Amino acid sequence: MSTKSNITFSRRAFMRTSSLAGGGMLIGFNLLQSCKPEVKLEPEIDLSQLDYKDFNAFIKIAETGEVTIFSPNPEIGQGVKTAMPMLIAEELDVAWENVYVEQGILDTENYTRQVAGGSQSIRHGWEPLRQTGATAKQMLINAAATRWGVDPSECMVSEGVITNAAGETLGYGDVVNEAALLEVPEDIKLKDPKDYKIIGQNIQNVDIDKITTGKPLFGLDYKKEGMVYASVLRPPAFGHKLISYDDTEAKSMPGVIDIIKIGEKVQKLFEEDPSFESKISSSDKVVVIAESTWQAMKAKEAIKAEWENDILMESTANHDQMLTGFLDGTQFDTRRKDGDVKKAFAEADMVLERTYESPFLPHNCMEPMNFFADVTDEKVHLVGPIQTPAWKAGLIAKLLGREEDEILLEMTRMGGGFGRRLYGDFVVEAAEISDAIRKPVKVIYSREDDMAVGVYRPAIKYRIKASVKDGQITGYHLKEAAINDNMYGLIPNFFPAGAIENYQVDTKSYKSNITTGAWRAPYTNFLAYAEQSFFDELAEVMEVDKVQLRLDLLKKVDADADERIEYSPERMIKVIETAVEKSGWGTQPKGVYQGFVNYYCHNTHVSEVADVVIENDSPVVKKITCVVDCGIVVNPLGALNQIEGGVIDGVGHSMYGDFGFNEGIPIAHNFDRYRLIRMKEAPKVEVHLIQNELAPTGLGEPTLPPAGGAVANALKAATGRRIYQQPFTKNPELLKVLEEPVIG
Amino acid sequence: MPTYQIKVNGKSQSVDVSADTPVLWVLRDHLDLVGTKYGCGIGQCGACTIHVDGTAMRSCSMTLEQLDGKSITTIEGLSEDGKHPVQEAWKEVDVPQCGYCQAGQIMTASAFLEKNPNPTEGEIKDAMHGNICRCASYNRIYRAVEKAAEQMS
After folding, report:
1. Among A152, A221, A245, A492, which has the minimal tally of Cβ within 10 Å of its Cβ?
2. Residue numbers in B near A295 (CB within 8 A)
3. What CA dihedral angle connects A18, A21, A25 and A29, to 10 degrees?
C-alpha cells in the first residue's frame, strides 16, 4: 500500500499530460477523447503520437466520472470483451453502469498475450487485470488524499467515490487529472472475494445493443473511404499449383478494377524460412479487385485457370489406410511411459482393445474469413477478425519488409473463431494485395472459399488397449495416429495418467499437404469421446458400475507425487458426484437412457450425462446435464452461454460433422452438403457450477470434448450398439435399436 | 447498369446494380446496411434473413427484380429504438455469443411471431430450424422466442 510519502509528481508524466488538449483524464491511453465511445471500426488513435509507458493502457476516466475500459484480447464469441473489463472494474471499484467497453488495438508493449485461444484469456488475465484496476484505484485515492492533506489509508472508496475520515467526498472524475500525474504505486492489495460487487454477477454481453440492432461490428462490416473488394482464386484442390490463367472475360465484367496475380512474396518467405507459416499455400493465386463484393465474386468465376498436380493428390481413403497402417505398426513416439504395459497385458486375466476414428472437420465460422489492409509508404493498416494479432503483425512486417512498428492492427469482433482465425492466410493475402495495388482493400472469402481452403481439424484414429487382473485395471496403452501433428504435450498427463500403474501414450503422424490446425479443444475434442467410450465398455466387460470405475481410478491418483499430473483428482471426484446427483444417474425414468463421462482439459473439470430417448424407432438426445468446476465464475450469464454452446457444438459435430477429400478436393463446399446441428436437434443443456474460491479457468473449450462421449455412451444404452466412428450418423444402421441388448 | 427503386425500412432508395446482384449485397455494399449478414449465399443458413412485406426471406437468394415493388425491412429497421419485443427478449436472455447470426435469427423470429403469437414448443423449433447458430446458442434462442411470444400474444 502506498503511503503519503510515496506521492511524488512525475515531471515526465506532467509534461506529457499537460501537452494534451481538452478535459477529462486518463489512466491508460494517453489520449483525451469523448468518454461515451461508439465502437468505431475506424481508428481514432494515431500510434505515433502515443507515449504512455508509465501508465497502464486499459483505463480511461473522464472528469464526469465515466470510465472507459479497453478490453485487450480478441473477442470470438467467448465473452472476454465483457469478462476481462469486469475484472478491472471490480478492483477499480466503479459501478458497472458507468463503464464503457472498447476493444483495445494490438499493443505488444502494454498488453501481454493478446490471443484468443486455449481458453486462457481469463486464466491469464485474472491477476494482471485486477492489479491494473487496483493500481488505478490507489492512484485516485492518493490524489484525493493529497488534496485533502490526509493519509491515503484514511480514505475509502465505493463505486467511484472517495470518502475521507471527515466524511468529505471526491469523485474519480474530480481527481483524475491529478491522479494521472502520480507515480505508479506498488504492492497493491486486491479485494477479498467476499467483497466482490461485479465479479460473480450476471453481466450482459457489452455489445448486446449493437448485435440486436445490426450495427457494424464485424470484419465483414468494416469500410473505409476508397476501399475496394478482392476475391481470390485459390487452388481448387490441395496439391494444385497455378500454371496459367485467362482473365479476358472477367476483366470486361462490370465493376472489375483490376485482376492481378499474387504469391511471389509468400514464396520468397518460404525460401528464406520454410517453417514460417505452414497454413498458407505457396501456389500463385489470381485476385479480382472490384467495386463491390458481388462483382468481385462473380468475376472470379469467369477466370479460366490451369492447375498442375505437383505433388500427391490425397483422398480420404488413402488417409484411412495410412492411419490404420500406423496403428498396426510399431514405429511411434512415446509421449509418456509409466511401468510396463506389455508385461501388464501378458499377465492379464482379460484384455480389451478398441479403435476409434474421426474425420477432418472444417471450422465453419459463420462470418467467412476476411481482412482489410491498407498499405501505404507511411504504415500498414490492418483491420479484421484475428485470434492472434501479434503473431500476424510480425508475419506481415516480414512479408512486406516493413518495421513492426509500422503495422497498425485493429481487431474487430469475430463471427466465430473456433481456432480457424489463429492462422493468418487471409491476413497475408490482404496485405500482399494492398501492397501491390496501393489501395485500401478487403479480401472476402465466399462460403465455398472458406470451406475449401480451411485449416481443418485433422483426421485421427485412436487405439486403446487395457488389461484387467484380479478385478483391477493394470495396464492402459493409448496410440494416436493423426494427420500432420500429434496431441500437444500436456495431454498425455490428463486422466487416466497417474491412475494406472502401467500406462503408455504413443503417437505418430502423417505429413499431408492438406492444411490442418487447431479446432475448438484440439485433439481432446475427439480423444475424450474415444477414452470415455472405452471406459464405458471396460466397465461393461468388467461388470462393474460405470461411475464407480472412474471414481476408483481417481482415488488411486496421487497428484502431489507426480508433478506432471495436470488435473486434480479431488475436483474431478466432486464434479462426478455432483453430476450423479443432478442428472438422476441410475434413477432415471423408464425409457430414458443415460451416458456418463468425466473429463479434464483446458484447466477445467467437467462431467456430463446425456439423456437419450427413443422416438419413432430412433434415438434422440434430449438433455445433457453438465457439471463444471472452473473456479470462480467471473460472469455466470456468459459462463452458462459458453457451456451450453460448447456442449451442443460437441453433440452436433460428433453426430453430424463429416468432411474429407477426393483427389485433394474437399467433399463439401457449403451447408447444403455439410451438416451443422440446428434447433430441432439441439438438446436442452442443464448446467451446474461448482462453487469455490479458486482462481478462474476458461470455458470456451472444456465442455465440448466430453459431449460426444456422453452421447455415444447413452446411444449404447439406448440401442445396444456401440459406435466407434464419428460422426455417429455415418452408419445409420448403428442407430437402430437392437432387439436383444448386448453387453460389451 | 439498370437503376432500381426499392423501399427499405420505410425509405425509398434508388440503386444502380447489375440485375443479378442479390439483395443481400445491395443492402450491405450499396446502402451501408451491414446488419444483414452473409453466411452461405445459397439460402441454407439464414444469416441474411430480412422481411419482405412482413415475410421472412433469404436476401442472398433474391434479386431486386424479384422484389417487384414490395417493401423490405432489415434488422436496422425492425424497430425505431431497438426495442421490438424480440430484440428486448434477446437482450434479457443474453442470447448472443459471437453474435454474427443473431440479426437473421431475430428477423426469422419476429416474422414468425407476428403470424403466430401463441406458438407451441414444436412450432418455435420448426420456425427457427432454418437458422444456423455456429456457437450453438439454441437453448437461449428458444427461450428468447418464448419470452417474446409472451409479450406479443
Report:
1. A245
2. 18
3. -90
Chain A residue numbers touching B140 (CB-CB < 8 A): 641, 644
Task: Determine the Cα angle at A354 with ends A352 and A359, to 5°.
Answer: 165
Would the CB atoms of A208 and B91 count as touching at under 8 Å?
Answer: yes
C-alpha span between A211 and A194 (Å, rounded): 33
User: Looking up cell 496439391, which residue turns up?
Assistant: A239
Q: What is the pLDDT of residues A586-604, one digit of tens each?
A: 999 999 999 999 999 999 9
Q: What is the pLDDT of residues A191-217, one digit of tens each?
A: 999 999 999 999 999 999 999 999 999
- CATH number (1.10.150.120, 1.10.10.60, 3.30.160.100, 3.40.50.720) of B85-152 reads 1.10.150.120
**pTM of the model as a whole:** 0.93
Between residues A391 and A534, which one has the greater pLDDT? A534
Q: Which of A107, A94, A249 shows the shortest CA–CA distance to A157? A: A94
The pLDDT of residue B68 is 82
Domain B3-76 matching CATH 3.10.20.30: the answer reads yes
Give rounded-to-5 percent helix, strand, coil for chain B. 40, 15, 40
CA dist A149 and A167 (Å) reads 14
In this prediction, residues B118-122 reach a mean pLDDT of 98
**Same-domain status, A585 and A500:** yes
- One domain for residues A224 and A208: no
Which residue has better confidence, A625 or A113? Answer: A625
Q: What are the residues facing B52 on neighbouring strands?
A: B55, B72
B82: which chain A residues are within 8 Å (Cβ-Cβ)? Answer: 209, 212-213
- Rounded to whole angstroms, the Cα distance separating A201 from A220 reads 32
